[in-house]
Amino acid sequence: KLTDLLQQYATAFRDPMMLQPPEWFKAFMYCEAFLQLPFFPVAAYAFLKGGCKWIRTPAIVYSTHVATTLFAILAHILFHDFSKSELAGPQTLRERLILLSIYLPYLLIPLLILFTMLCNPHYKHVEKRKRK
To answer: TM spans, by residue (predicted)?
Structure first.
């Protein structure tokens, strides 16, 4: 049933990357499976507990990594010539924007995390130096 759901999604939103991912997209999926997914429970613990300033650096690394991968994916959606693909990809600007809108939250949430870690005074480290 899950493969049918994936097939329906790929057909409805003209997303061939889900059925026949390019090699670079597969590399991003491995990064997600082995780097990003293990980060989720750690981050959930830190954010739910509150007051965990140690999450700042891992959250910055996570959010910049995810944002970087999403820029490549979004650029591929906007500029790739899908007419040469075996599977139907977005052809019109409207279809590209619809597919882009599906991937866009995966960029916005890491950017919000990054903004929070960099600008929120709670997460800013104030280095204390010893006086001699």
So the answer is: 27-48, 60-79, 99-123
Residue closest to 9 by CA, chosen among 93, 67, 88: 88
Task: Report domain extents, the chain.
Answer: 2-123
Q: Give the global pTM.
A: 0.82
What are the DSSP calls for 7-75, one per residue? Answer: HHHHHHTT-HHHHS--HHHHHHHHHIIIIIHHHHHHHHHHHHH---GGGHHHHHHHHHHHHHHHHHHHH
Mean pLDDT of the 37-58 span: 92
Alpha-carbon span 24 to 30, nearest angstrom: 10
Helix axes 105-119 and 93-103, enclosed angle (nearest 10): 50
CB contact set of 59 (below 8 Å; sequence gap of 6+)? 43, 113, 114, 116, 117
